[in-house]
Amino acid sequence: MIIHTPFAENRPYLERIEKQFALQSWQQANPNFRLTYDEAGLQLLKLDEPKLGGIRVDFVTGASAHRRKFGGGKGQAIAKAVGLNKGATPVVLDATAGLGRDAFVLAALGCEVILHERHPVVAALLFDGLERAYQDSEIGSWMQQNMRMIFGSSHELLAQSELNPDVVYLDPMFPHREKSAQVKKEMRVFQSLVGGDADADALLPFAYELATKRVVVKRPDYAPFLNEQKPSMQIETKKNRFDVYVKAAMK
Ligand SMILES: C[S@@+](CC[C@H](N)C(=O)[O-])C[C@H]1O[C@@H](n2cnc3c(N)ncnc32)[C@H](O)[C@@H]1O
Fold first, then answer.
1. Which SUPFAM superfamilies does the record associate with it (predicted)?
2. ipTM of the shown complex
């Protein structure tokens, strides 16, 4: 097994994860990383930079849970960008899911969110985070209804999709401009795992074709438009902006 755990009873579950996300071949190509599993779930560590700590997906007790309770509700920028403030609860396809944080904000506000993730380890972390959340007595029932993940690349999945999402949401990786010490430790591990999403421009035409109402693209404030395409409107936050490509009004 490549996932290290002291818990023998969890091995069948972890073997399933290793198989589902082809983690064995990923680990062979990436000996710098280690996956571990303990009471708090699956975790990724970067062996050559242990001080950076690990990455997990924890919707139940982590920062996401705090933001759900104390965040800005439907008034926050991401909710406005997908059109939630207009009284609609759109179905959102998050085509670059990552650790599922943005998707969780939308799901907690009532949206049904389908998540695509192509990186095997990010997908495995997300899968484990979702499994744990589904079993939680407080959030489990709406999580089961509102969040589900598909492992694969949106370059193919969007073109083949039979879903009719109101909104397609894109948040591809973009190189950080700040000096690396200022970038949060967890983000540094994540960046060294995933790299840049240099092929992200090609997602926009597929996303625009599939969405029935709008495409929302999250960008750092200094980044150019995705695919050099000017949006219909922009919603700005402190460090990011949401570029919104409107196709039809939200109902
Ligand atoms: C910046 S992260 C997204 C963060 C996410 N919005 C969150 O709140 O946690 C970008 C993620 O998109 C994934 N990604 C990029 N291009 C993709 C594609 N074509 N299909 C599926 N996933 C993709 C990357 O592997 C990475 O995990």
1. S-adenosyl-L-methionine-dependent methyltransferases (SSF53335)
2. 0.99
